[in-house]
Specification:
The protein is built from nine helices and twelve strands. The protein is of the alpha+beta class. The protein has a five-stranded mixed β-sheet. A five-stranded mixed β-sheet has the order 7-8-6-11-12, with helices on both faces. A two-stranded antiparallel ribbon has the order 9-10.
Length: 302
């Protein structure tokens, strides 16, 4: 059967990658694009940036799925579920690729919608570039040398952004605080080098259970914390117990020294009137409630 010109055009468009470069003149932007540009410039966190863009794009063009992938930076952010009709965009600045976007839904995008997406994508290029540069700049300063996880300095910067985003867009936000039980005995019996190896292995173990959107930190000493974005409390409590059970049942090989360890976990949800201080204090109190309940325990907010 012979294809019509329109269907052939659509297939070419669907299978090709649309190159997007930064907007050259702000004066040429529509009012909607200008407003989106200011919103996108409000964060340097790549996850928040993509979520903001997705939120703004849905106001103009309906879609069911958005993916941003940057292989160089090991970033792969999925929002929704991939379906048939998709558009692929490659964002570039100075001929350097900033990563690819896939936008999809069940029905075809018309020409007007594609142009609207292209216009918004051109506004996104510079904020994405800024977020990637920021990510690269803080990597060394924000990584804990023992566990290779994000450190407390970065946590203190990010938690306020996450709270502000959750409040603004009415998103759920949870904070999980994790503390090793009787870790001092490990250091006393085997030395601090073995203790550091154990902390590193625990960090790897925690990361295995998390989604890409979750943020894992070494909070200090033998304490870890995890920011869980857009998560339900019941599901997070089950996750916390899976983490606890897995660590409790495991035997960690620390330079040929076999060590058994358990953890206590506190899990708090964000309240409408929370700031970072009240949110962290509540999660920390739940953690110590778990310890006082006999250790190797999870206490979640009700």
């Amino acid at each position: 059967m012979k294809k019509t010109k329109n269907s052939a055009d659509h297939n070419n468009r669907k299978n090709s990658i649309i190159i997007i470069k930064p907007i050259k003149k702000v004066e040429s932007l529509t009012e909607e694009s200008l407003r989106t540009m200011y919103i996108l410039q409000s964060t340097l966190d790549i996850n928040i940036l993509i979520e903001l863009f997705d939120h703004e794009l849905k106001k103009m063009v309906s879609h069911d799925y958005l993916n941003y992938k940057n292989s160089v930076e090991n970033i792969n952010i999925d929002l929704g579920e991939i379906i048939k009709e998709k558009l692929i965009f490659n964002l570039k600045i100075n001929n350097n690729s900033l990563g690819k976007f896939v936008i999809a839904r069940n029905i075809k995008f018309n020409k007007w919608e594609i142009n609207q997406i292209k216009n918004l994508m051109s506004v996104l290029v510079q904020p994405i570039n800024n977020a990637l540069l920021y990510r690269q700049a803080i990597t060394n300063a924000s990584i804990d040398p023992v566990t290779k996880l994000n450190n407390r300095t970065l946590f203190n910067k990010i938690i306020n952004q996450e709270i502000d985003f959750a409040h603004r867009y009415e998103q759920k936000l949870l904070l999980m605080m994790i503390d090793l039980d009787n870790f001092k005995k490990i250091n006393d019996n085997f030395g601090h080098n073995i203790g550091d190896v154990l902390l590193n292995l625990l960090g790897q173990e925690l990361t295995k259970f998390m989604r890409r959107s979750d943020l894992v930190f070494r909070y200090g000493g033998d304490e870890f914390c995890i920011i869980l974005r857009n998560s339900i409390l019941d599901g997070a409590k089950k996750l916390a117990n899976r983490v606890r059970n897995n660590i409790d049942e495991n035997e960690f090989n620390c330079n040929d020294v076999k060590i058994k360890i358990s953890v206590s976990i506190g899990l708090a949800k964000l309240h409408d009137d929370d700031d970072s201080i009240t949110f962290i204090e509540r999660a920390d109190k739940l953690l110590y409630d778990a310890k006082n309940a006999g250790r190797n325990n999870v206490i979640a907010e009700k």
